[in-house]
Predict the structure.
Amino acid sequence: MRFAEQEENRRLIERLHRSVADGRVSHAYIFEGPETVDKLAFAKAFVKGVLCPDGRGENCGKCEICGKIDHDNHEDILYISKGDRATVRDSAIIEMQEHLKVKPLGGKSVAVIQDCDLMTAKARNRLLKTLEEPAGDTLIILLSENMEILEPTIKSRCVKFRINPSASRPIGKKESNRRAKAEEIADMCLRREPYYKIREVLGSKKLTDEEVSVMLDEIEEVYRKYITDNHSESLPKYEFDRLYDGIYMIEEARKELAFHVSVNYAIKNLILKLGG
């Protein structure tokens, strides 16, 4: 993937281009985006832009470095994820620290942490120590669906960016229906319509944890859209305070669900708060 293919994130990409061209690449970034966004591909495109000798923010996509990154075999880059486990464990961050101690063959030692929202408390504490004392030739990228879950001390030491979903990505009928339902629910909450009407849109089918997580992503996207595209003539206007409060409430609902609160209770509680 090349950044030129990401028109819907043009402003973000321009900022990243400038940071590379001006030699102001930070030691740590958080790229946040919903489950539907390929955050790893975006991170790879950025890393290629940093390491590619032919580019100044954009990558050529043809040189040996770009090829190695495409095939996940670049010596200076370590990818971390939870894999088949439920969390990213402390041992993975220890591996990252050892990797970053090695002098890079190229310009930087890079670590990309996927599923960073699912790090254990011990792993987060160890990561924080690395972020507090970064080496000059280090680049750490955290990929997150909900950066609000991360500790403020971690977020404060990273440059934070929100990645928008690709407008050109084909959307299946199931996903299209799901997105339409989430938009309808979000708008009904913002219009303060009664709960029983919103309940009719939700339907009687019991949602799985995964379906609830995706629905919360979609509702949050609507709120963020109203914030970022507030000048659009086609979108209704809502108070920014309500929109930001709504995003906070959605994140609180995620935390409730993480502690195994009843799905029905968490969703009802959220909808009542959003419409309050």
